[in-house]
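=== Structure Prediction Worksheet ===
Name of assembly: unnamed complex
Input type: mixed (protein and possibly other molecules)
Chain count: two
Listed entries:
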Amino acid sequence: MSESAIEFVNICKSFKRKDGSLQHVLNNISFTIPAGKTTVIAGGSGQGKSVTLKLVLRLLDADSGSILVDGEDITAIRGRKLNQLRTRFGVLFQSSALFDSLTVFENVAMPLRERTRKSEKEIHSQVIEMLAQFDLAGHELKYPAQLSGGMKKRVGLARAMMLTPSIMLFDEPTTGLDPVMTGEIYHLFARTQQQYGFTSVIVSHDIPKVFNLADHVILLNHGGVDAFDSPESIQWSEKAEIQEFVKTTMGEIYQSRNVETGTL
Amino acid sequence: MSNPLARLGDTGLYILEDLGWMTNFFFQSVLGIFKRPFRFSELLRQINFIGSGSIVVIFFTALSTGMVLGLQGYYSLNRFGADGFLGSAVSLSIIMELGPVLTALMVAGRAGSAMSAELGIMRISEQIDALQCMAVDPYRYLITPKFLAALISIPLLTALFDVVGIFGGYLAGVSMMGVSPGAYYEGMRSSVTNHDIWLGVVKSFVFAGLVVWICCGRGFFVQQIRGAGFGAESVSRMTTQAVVLSSISVLVFDYLLTAVLL
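=== Predicted Assembly ===
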């Protein structure tokens, strides 16, 4: 695997507003997501965090620039090549995106049934093993509507892991969960990453918790990248915009940092 | 955008864009037939939903339509002493026009709206995105079985409508108004040609395609359609739009097909 798992090179993305004008969400941004590490994409609402993930997955197309995945430019690929690219990714959606009409077992089995030629017996044993790993044993026959928020996330994660992806993308993975469950889910992410060794990209609002997991942080602001650094460097940055971000999203940490430096 | 000309141009461009999405949607759904794995069990489930689930609705619609036609036809023809032509009038009206049209409209209202809402909900809850992320073709997985199921079910429902409708005309004309049963059957037998039946069959296939294409397409593109709004509201608006658009399309195509094929 190359040094960088994902590379954004001069990416621009805009959307048409109702009045016909363009809203530039990403304006000529470039950054690198290192392989095997956890990178957090942070920033305020509407700064293009989820758009960044959708561009990587080619659910959206960039207006200009290129995106490299393991060194391969993916901005123009189509058909079978695009499908091959997507099998390298696992995605945990904000809403978990479980299929309502399928049971937990069927949801988790779906990637194997659709993308492999394994027998039903093999699929059954693999799914049962994966469900046990995520503490979901005994819930195989339940439907998503019968699960709690935390369980839905675990089913989503189990489903995403079925094809053993090399890159996991998490889009606001703890939205709607209580603080205890949020902690448990992040602990599960860390444990799973350690076990499988995938590259992890997390888009999250839950900055203090997610900073503990991060090796690198990309801070998106006003269509550009304000910072790409380690969480510690961002926390101690002297740049006014970054200080403002740290202050609003990491109140306690900001306070302790200023106590330490004698400014509070 | 305050300039009316610019607004008109913008609307024109949007309509072209929408037609582009829908055309691509149609071809991708048809191509799904040739992609593997084919979801045979889902096809059967959809035939059960669209076909078997509509039998009662079609039965009562056909029976009442046939009976109304029988009564109306009797009163009109009886004035000229031509009530022997009742079988011919009822069967031709049902086989060539009312059978295919009313069946398509009923299926659009019952199953088309449900398909549109189901796909709309899947879209707004990111389930379709999830399919794409798993490299599963959403057209093959979701749309193709619905397309095939509609193409199998709607012509069969139309045939049921024709039979029940003609029987309804018989009940009203023969059993209630006293028209001779022999005259009713002979009128029907002598006036209905293979071409008339073929016209009805062609219409039912075209209407099936139109209903499933428009209803599924509106749900599938719920987030891209201008003015749809967001969340649950967008799904409800698109479901309404799907039924209205497919119903109007059925009526417009009914005229066009009749004009071309009659």
